[in-house]
Amino acid sequence: MGKQLFRSSPPPEKQPAHQSLAETAVQECTSSINTVISKWTSSSSNEFLFSTNSRHEAEEFVEAVKHLQSTMHRLVSVNASSDKLVYAHNLMQSAMKLLESEFRRVFSGQDSDAMDDLKTIADCMISTGYAKECVTVYKTVRKSIVEETLNNLAVERLTLHQVQKMDWETLESKIRSWLRAAKLAVRSLFFGERLLADHVFSSSVNIVESSFTDITQEGALTLFAFPENAAKIKKLSPEKMFRFLDMYETLASLYVEIETIFYFDSAAAVRSQVISSLTRLGDAVRTMMTAFETAIQKDTSRTPVIGGGVHPLTRYVMNYLSFLVDYSESIADAYPEELYSSPVSVRIAWVILLTLCKIDGKAQPYKDVALSYLFLANNLQYVVVKVRTSNVKLLLGEDWVVRHEGKVKQYADKFEKLAWGKVLTSLPEYPAEEITPEEAKELLVRFDDEFEASYRKQISWVIPDPKLRDWIKVSLSHKLMLVCTELYEINRFGSGGDGFNVRYTSEDIGNYLSDLYFGSRGSGSGSVSTKGSGSGTGTGSSSTGKSRGGRSH
């Protein structure tokens, strides 16, 4: 039907003697509709038809428009050339313009009844043959809102070339923005648009599909294509893996919701893009995981860590793994076939084993064998603590931890024997046998010299882990105290009861031990005494009573 000018009243005409019932019905409808249109299109009116105060009138108007449509159909069947049809058609167009105007206004309003009002208007326009006009307005308004919302979420239309030209800092920033935007867009924006379309156009599934797809598809494709483009960058180093795992995890967690929201056939491109991005992200994760393992295998650093501390490779790998295990499900998804018979726990255990094998090799350059065992103990202890205090333990289990704690103890025992063996074996095989004063003095001198040499050598050695450090010190202290006790007895009896000068008392030894394994010059106490006889006796008192080291002069 062509557009014609609206006329507020029918043209004057001679009333026929007999007027059909259909014409009468049309005339009654046009009268009530015309009154409402005149009222609500008045330039002096600051109110709107679909508002709280006039909702009843709006509902009556909609029913009158629907009734006019049906009476026009009846009139056409009895008198297709009736002048009242022309007038009714013009009036119908005016009514649609009013409804279209209200449709736009309701979108911009804050009424809690907005969705119902939109549905009422849409149902009326569709049922009266103005679906196209209604849908056009709906798409225009909602698409603008979707674009504005995505823009506010920092979602940009970026080509692959643009993404690949970005430096990592810029790309990482955009990935962080994407992570936030993806969840909000799917669970709020797209889900909300789907609910709105379902409600407003519930009378027509086809309209729901076409309107929703036209409104959201472009923005959705822009949003979901970004991870794929990001995963195609050329330099995928291991340090970047966590951001890609974040994207994979986010997209995977949203996939069911995306499928539900975009289930229409016309939205297949959106679902396909999500799958493509997940696939590409999985490829990138595998590439970076391989690069991580290769970097461990190819590490050739041979410079010994000062003091036998924890090697940077150990710290790097274990910190990396402690973060990586939080993404174990995503990693398993990235290795669907490979991990079917080889769970993530096996791969993590293999990486740790690979690292420990490299650490074994890095112990070789130490010239002091005792220090090499301290180095091994420190590094394995670091690994065990990291496993125990992170989610890695959930994958490897308590048995793995206990087994490797036993290996730490074995390394510590080896270290103790090699580092302090000469001190601990400075007693005669049968100390209870009677010895001469010269022999007693020789034993004391040997103990003092061996203790001093061991202490001086180890003053710069380090045990970073407090638990391991305390365990080794307690073990040494106990064994050294037993030696000291025997030496005092030998000193007392071997010298005829008077005793020789004792350079280190039990208290001195305890103080010196407490000063060890902090690295550099220890915890801040003094150094070991110089060679020579002290002024103390076999009673075990310090030469000065106050000096930490019992220095002799």
Automatic annotation (TrEMBL):
Keyword Protein transport: yes
Family statement drawn from the similarity comment of this UniProt entry: Belongs to the EXO70 family.
Residues covered by the Exocyst complex subunit Exo70 C-terminal domain: 177-515
GO CC terms of this entry: exocyst
Source organism of this protein record: Brassica napus
Protein known as: Exocyst subunit Exo70 family protein
A GO MF label: phosphatidylinositol-4,5-bisphosphate binding
Annotated stretches, region: Disordered: 1-20, 521-553
